Amino acid sequence: MKPCTSHDGRRGFLKKSASIAALYFTPTSLVKAFAVDRVIPLPIAKEKLAITINGKLMNLEIDARTTILNLLREDLAYTGTKKGCEMGQCGACTIHINGKRTKSCIQLALNNQNNKITTIEGLSEGEKLHPMQAAFLKNDAFQCGYCTSGQIMSAVACVREGNAKTRKSIQTYMDTNICRCGAYQNIVDAIEEVAKSGVKI
Amino acid sequence: MKAINNTIFFEDERVDGADKVTGKAKYTAEHSLPNMAYAVFVTSTIAKGSIKNLDITKALTMPGVIDIIYYANCPAVPGYNPNAAERPKNVSEWRGYKVLYDNKVRFFGQPIALILANSFENANAAIRFVKAEYEIEKFETNFDKARLDPANLKAPINYKRGTEKKYKEQPFFVEGEYNIPIEVHNAMELFATIAYWEGDDKITLYDKTQGPKSTQSTVARTFGLVDKNVRVIAENVGGGFGSGLRSWPHVAAACIAAKKINRPVKLVLTRPQMFSMVGYRPQSWQKVGIGADAAGNFIGISHEAISNTSRYEDFREGIVEASKFLYACENVDTKYSILPLDVSTPIWMRGPGEATGCFALESAIDELSYKLKMDPIQLRIKNFTAVNPENKLPFSDINIKDCYAYGMEKIGWKNRPTIPGSLKENGMLIGYGMSVGVFGAGKGAASVRIVLSNDGKLLLECAVSDMGPGTMTSMSIIASDAMQMPIQKIKFKLGDSDLPPGPSQGGSGTTSTVGSAVDLACKTLQQKLKEMAIQFVPAFAGSTADAIEVKNEMVISKTNATTKIDIPVLLKLANQEKIDLTIASNGKTAAQLKFTSNSFSSHFVKLAVNPKDGTIKILNVVTTGDAGKIISPKTARSQMIGGVVGGIGMALTEKLEFDHATGQITNASFGAYHVPLHSQIPPTDVWFVDKPDVNMNEIGAKGIGEIALIGFAAAVANAVYNATGKRVRDLPITPEKLGYKTVKA
């Protein structure tokens, strides 16, 4: 799965990611179209996965069908990463895989042997907030807080990848992350502030 | 920052903000219980009919599947019994359709079975093996077609003062029909319920709800339990916008399943299910006529409306209300009927019916202003009223004209072309538009527990929830102001039905209702502290409570500032670890009921229409609120901006689509149902009158959640007209409706 790049058109991205999602993980709405009678139910074998999450190497045995998102949330109690659509369309589940921002709901966990994952929980150092977290807090860049983890993970990537030069480029890069409460303006304020401060993130 | 007596008392960030930016804040589905089973719904692929046969045999053999519940094996639910005589006293009939109860299908996407498995993956994998055979019945999902036959309409409510249709007799009048499609709340957090029966008659739920007490009551009445044996926890709610104002069938399903398999059950809806199972803003048709004399005085307003409901439940909202009272007018008539369709039941969506109604009303006023050759703001000022013409009560406060003045100045109203379509900037057609929003400001009953410990910390508790506006923050600010103590020493606990009863978070009522209770609790606590000082501190002996004040964490004599005592020391002197009070605050007082109370807003939009393809870009927004005292300026500003974003979706992009041949929803995803994104959001300036409404409640604050959105779509439509000369009365406003052909991406 190719991570989304800033020059991808929003709707184009959605279409692409949706078709990839259908291959990896079939949402309820699509499954009825499958010819199901030929499928023979077999016990699901556990697969081995070595993965580093927030600096911690983990050797796991997992269900081959598990997405990284569900692995994080259901199996490992890293609930900071959010589930919003399971189709790669809303960005609530955004994490970093080997430093690249990725939508974890459409990533099979097993495809990530030896990968390094960073989640929202891995950004702050103990009680000390990451500069982007602090900027979100200061600029009130959220309301309900549910899309916030994903927004922050995307925001960090936005600055790191050099896409935070103008408000417009920030907005385009961040179009992958929906906020239904409508905190967009404050989110861009926060990202701009961090980018302008020049602090290394 | 906020300064009281030159002391900086607090930073202005959200008190629960750090938890939200670090991912620590836990939402419903993020809780986990030992031995918890995962539940997923199988949903109907038809809009109406019955299930002839549901084959679960193969699905039951799938790995990890524990059980599959459907109409043939669903345990008896006391509240499902339609016979009132047979229901125990403490049981009420479940409102809406009874999930897993019968073989009837009432709408596309209705749950027809619930799969329970030991993992999410196993539950999901079994969905495809549940096979339904349907008997399809004739259905109707087409609102536009069905509303044309009066026999389909239901439950009309009419209102009249003066003469009906008086507007038609006036020298200047407009009339037009307005259409708004179904819009879906689509909060980012998926609806979820975790249910766990701790005993035969005791259940705990983690539930995404805007009202823990309301959910508690629904579950208790449905299953015949006493309220205290139903605990509902909703400590963080990832958006609601109205969709969490009732318990939807999935809540009952989780309770039923947990009972049947005797394990905790986690049920999380999918995004497509968020489009069909948890309400939406109903589709509506409206006709508005306004007539004025030559001077611009409104002589007649007529407002008709139809909105859809489901076949199994009636839902109506305040679509025609604003037309009755927002402007001075002697002759007003309204008609409002509902139209049942074979769809699920709607519910209030942010701004609710008033947002629907104000789109039509505020568009019509704009249209009339062109006929009168009058500035639309002047026309509104001309018809301003300080007394509600419907109930004849004075508004407790109304400063809408201040909003106009600020908005005009900030948006650059003087640059607005009086001839539509005559202003161009950089090759784009430029238009300016404005509108007004109004919503009732209520104050209900709430109880608050207040606990002051001898370490100086203050705890407040109420069973309200916070879906995002920042209730925890604003309540902490009210307590901080009332107690004159730092907010860092205050903790406001919410989101748990075990706490003292509070309202559901909705209808812009939380700040007024719970805030008044917090204020009363603090004042009661202060009185108690004063009495303790008089009793236990010799220096205060003989003093009266009136001569003492509580501030800066001390009890101080008003007459001699050197006579004072630290609160923790006072508690120790009195040999008390803490003061623990639960205070009930009532609805409006007799004095407050002599007024009618509303929050008002005025929105200003500058936008550009590309003359080549009709695409609309909103360039600037100024949004203003007249809602009494603003308790928490930072979160209030965010809430207003959020209303604008919601309003942009309503105005330009959001529409739920049906295939009327099959009754299926065709765009149930974020890829196909377009909510506003980062790059569609213009710079938005927020301004509040920020003047306490002393006639409304003790804290002088009214709600802003609804007015943030109400009317906004009309400001966009009015600006589009100003830019192009095309009056679009059907939302969303797309290039096609401006006469441009669809451009394929």
Helices and strands, with pairings:
The complex is a heterodimer of chains A (201) and B (745).
Chain A (H helix, E strand, L loop, with lengths): L9 H15 L3 H4 L14 E8 L2 E8 L4 H8 L18 E4 L2 E4 L12 E3 L12 H8 L9 H13 L6 H8 L9 H14 L4
Parallel strand pairs in A: 1-5
Antiparallel strand pairs in A: 1-2, 3-4, 3-5
Helix pairs in contact in A: 4-7, 5-7
Chain B lengths: L1 E3 L2 E4 L6 H5 L15 E7 L5 E7 L1 H4 L4 E6 L33 E2 L5 E7 L2 H7 L4 E6 L6 H4 L7 E8 L10 E9 L11 E8 L2 E6 L4 H12 L6 E4 L15 H13 L3 E4 L2 H6 L7 E9 L5 E13 L10 H5 L5 E11 L10 H21 L3 H7 L17 H12 L12 E2 L2 E13 L5 E8 L4 E4 L9 H13 L6 E4 L16 H27 L11 E4 L2 E4 L6 E3 H7 L4 E8 L12 E12 L6 E11 L6 H21 L4 E2 L4 E2 L18 E5 L23 H13 L21
Parallel strand pairs in B: 3-14, 12-13, 16-17, 21-22, 28-31
Antiparallel strand pairs in B: 1-2, 3-7, 4-6, 4-8, 5-7, 9-17, 10-15, 11-12, 11-14, 15-16, 18-19, 19-27, 20-21, 20-26, 23-24, 24-25, 27-28, 29-30
**Alpha carbon gyration radius of chain A:** 17 Å
Strand tally of chain A is 5
CATH superfamily of the largest domain in chain B: Aldehyde oxidase/xanthine dehydrogenase, molybdopterin binding domain
User: Which residues of chain A sit in consecutive blocks of at least 5 with pLDDT less than 50?
Assistant: 1-36
Looking at the overall shape, the CATH architecture of the largest domain in chain B is 2-Layer Sandwich
* Strand residues, percent of chain B: 25-35%
